[in-house]
Design goal:
The chain is built from eleven helices and 22 strands. The protein has 671 residues and is α+β, with helices and mostly antiparallel strands.
Length: 671
């Protein structure tokens, strides 16, 4: 199971022959420093860099590049080496940005020689820094581990190497920069823009002119400020929601301000770092030739990536980005046309003489004609891009793997329990009001980095119709069951367990698919005693795993401890919860995801209003989803309010029960 690390987290390494893959979006310098048991670098000969790219057991790139592959042989490391630090820096004297805050968050992955990912880390939170210690491989009690570091330095390589204890830091930094400058002609640019017609590009997001609307923040789905965590393309949850392809997808970083960031270092690439991982080992599918004068025909899987799953994931992200940009351009053009017409009318009518002899009417008609022309131009460009995206969606949707597919996709009818954990999971669809028929799958990275909150409060839908509270609670429970079933279905046998707290037993009917197929870890807990028992067991599990991870003693966990990912579904909160249970719930929401315990709340926030602001951090920490279409997800790029629709099982379909039966059968055989 690949680990997505956060800053300071470590992960054991079971292989000695490794690759460290770097994707930065812009050319960066990659180096590696060898350290002793105290982390000290003994001299310049302990640093591999473009001028000296090879050391025993280590080889780095000879030039600045947008993507790197560093070769590491831990078995060939000298006995005196106990630490290998991977260093990244922006090249000096180049035309590129001078600080990491002006580029996409660098992505670093440790893989086997076959490309199998062992651990990855997206370096978020950088701003004025121009050099960073990305991660380190270190030896502990004879075994090697990897730790996510993410320590940045505004003073560049010289400051970084000085902090590493190297006396010749300034001289070595100069040598590295000189070697990079000499090889600048050979430097590898960012992956070329992927275009589907002459106007749209997938790799670089161009800030839209007009008022800055990037201040919207959220949870995504919801990665308060947008947190570009590894994987989560969607933002972080504040009062509304946010979409963050969690970027990745977080979900804890700051909302992007295109205007401010562009001023610091050129154009900004908002795309997820995973979309810039270089060319895949096997050629991506190619589209059949298009007719002369026509745009290229779309094909599923034509984005970059190391596997078809990653290519499709990146292609979905590209579609999201394309729709966000083209809609922002359309809205900006319409706003400009409105402002221009208003200005021309004010100028024409401010002179009393223009009101005589019909001059005012002529000016008004002229301004309105110009306005209509500009809007028609913008709409034509929008319709062209929407048609291309719709054609791409028609090709991509049927090709999506299980974890990305909707419940109506035929792929579910051939379901078999997978052998590997997928990189992401579909939680629903996203669309904008100008293009309600064009749906973009809402994908979040796995394992879940934030809990889910299925909001059963509020009864008014987007079309103005009202849904009574009982029906809304039923829909919320059905949505929760569908999400839980999907999680169970995409994990390998024994890798995921689901617990349910239903204090009043009100969810019995909705939970039938989970209960009757036997996929729950235990029967739903009812009453205050059941609530206390489940919460106590899960909080104890979090404590044990945290202590083992922090102490570097993962092998010392109790033999009977279930190491599978755990999902706790809580219905009817706060019914059946006392103050101690509320505290435990908050603890699970905050600390659980990092050690494999995840929370799914089916609740109306107003029902817990009696606790006052005590529970506000709980709601903010969860990704809010709704059982009805709702436009609560806010785009941190250009301020779009995306409409979210949950992924529903088609009425009358038995696909969910069939899938859960397969999961239960596989568990029986596994035992």
């Amino acid at each position: 199971m690949a680990a997505e690390l956060v800053r300071g987290q470590n992960h054991p390494l079971s292989q000695v022959h490794l690759e460290i893959r770097v994707a930065a979006g812009k050319p960066v310098v990659a180096a590696a420093a060898l350290g002793d048991e105290h982390g000290r670098i003994h001299g310049v000969e302990w640093v591999a860099h473009p001028g000296t790219p090879t050391l025993p057991g280590l080889e780095v790139s000879k030039q600045a590049a947008a993507d790197h592959r560093l070769a590491v042989d831990l078995g060939a490391m000298p006995e005196t080496v106990h630490r290998v630090s991977v260093l990244l820096a922006l090249p000096l004297g180049a035309d590129g940005p001078a600080r990491f805050g002006a580029v996409a968050a660098p992505f670093v992955a440790v893989t086997g020689l076959d490309g199998t990912e062992v651990a990855s880390y997206t370096i978020t939170g950088l701003d004025a820094e121009s050099a960073v210690v990305a991660l380190e491989l270190y030896r502990r009690q004879g075994a090697w581990k990897v730790r996510a570091v993410g320590q940045g330095y505004a003073g560049g390589l010289a400051e970084l190497l000085t902090d590493q204890g190297l006396p010749e830091a300034l001289h070595l930094a100069g040598s590295i920069n000189e070697a990079v400058a000499q090889g600048l002609a050979r430097s590898v640019a960012a992956p070329p823009p992927r275009t589907t017609d002459g106007d749209r590009t997938r790799q670089t997001a161009t800030p839209v002119p007009g008022p800055d609307t990037s201040g919207t923040t959220t949870p995504p789905g919801a990665s308060g400020a947008v947190a570009p965590q590894p994987g989560s393309p969607y933002g972080a949850q504040g009062t509304p929601g946010a979409v963050a392809p969690q970027s990745g997808y977080d979900s804890g970083a700051a909302t992007a301000n295109p205007s401010a960031q562009a001023a610091g270092g050129g154009s900004i690439d908002y795309s997820h770092p995973r979309r810039q991982s270089g060319a895949p080992p096997a050629p991506a599918p190619t589209a059949p030739p298009a007719a002369p004068g026509q745009p290229a025909r779309p094909v599923a899987g034509d984005a970059t990536g190391w596997s078809m799953e990653e290519r499709l994931y990146n292609q979905v992200w590209g579609m999201f980005e394309d729709l966000a940009r083209t809609m922002a351009a359309y809205r900006s053009a319409v706003d400009f046309a409105d402002a221009r017409m208003e200005k021309e009318l004010d100028q024409a009518l401010s002179d009393p003489r223009s009101r005589i002899g019909g001059q005012g009417d002529t000016a008004r008609e002229t301004a309105q004609a110009k306005h209509a022309h500009l809007v028609d131009q913008a709409r034509a460009a929008l319709d062209r891009d929407l048609a291309q995206l719709a054609a791409e969606s028609e090709v991509v949707e049927p090709a999506l793997p299980l974890a990305f597919a909707g419940w109506d996709n035929p792929v579910w009818h051939g379901y078999r329990v997978p052998m590997e954990i997928p990189m992401a999971l579909r939680l629903g669809d996203l669309h904008l009001p100008e293009s309600p028929d064009l749906r973009i799958p809402m994908l979040v990275r796995l394992p879940l980095e934030r809990g889910l909150w299925i909001d059963s409060g509020g009864g008014e839908s987007l079309d103005g119709s009202f849904v009574d509270s009982h029906e809304l609670r039923r829909l919320a429970l059905d949505t929760a069951v569908a999400h839980a079933a999907r999680l169970l279905a995409v994990y390998p046998t024994g890798e995921f367990a689901v617990h349910v707290i239903d204090p009043a037993g009100s969810a019995a009917q909705a939970l039938v698919p989970l209960v009757h197929t036997g996929v729950l870890a235990a029967p739903p807990a009812v009453g205050a005693a059941g609530v206390a028992d489940v919460l106590t067991r899960l909080t104890q599990r979090v404590d044990l795993v945290q202590m083992a991870v922090r102490g570097g003693a993962a092998d010392s966990l109790p033999p009977g401890l279930d190491t599978a990912e755990q999902l706790l579904i809580v219905n009817d909160f706060p019914h059946g919860f006392d103050d101690r249970a509320v505290t435990q719930l908050r603890y699970l929401a905050d600390e659980g995801p990092s050690v494999g315990v995840h929370l799914m709340m089916v609740a109306d926030r107003e029902d817990a209003a009696g606790y006052g602001p005590l529970l506000d951090p709980l709601w903010r920490s969860l990704m809010r989803l709704t059982p009805l279409p709702d436009d609560h997800l806010a785009d941190p790029w250009v301020g779009h309010a995306w409409t979210y629709e949950p992924s529903r099982v088609p009425p009358g379909s038995q696909v969910l029960r069939q899938v859960l039966t397969e999961v239960a059968t596989a568990r029986t055989k596994h035992r």
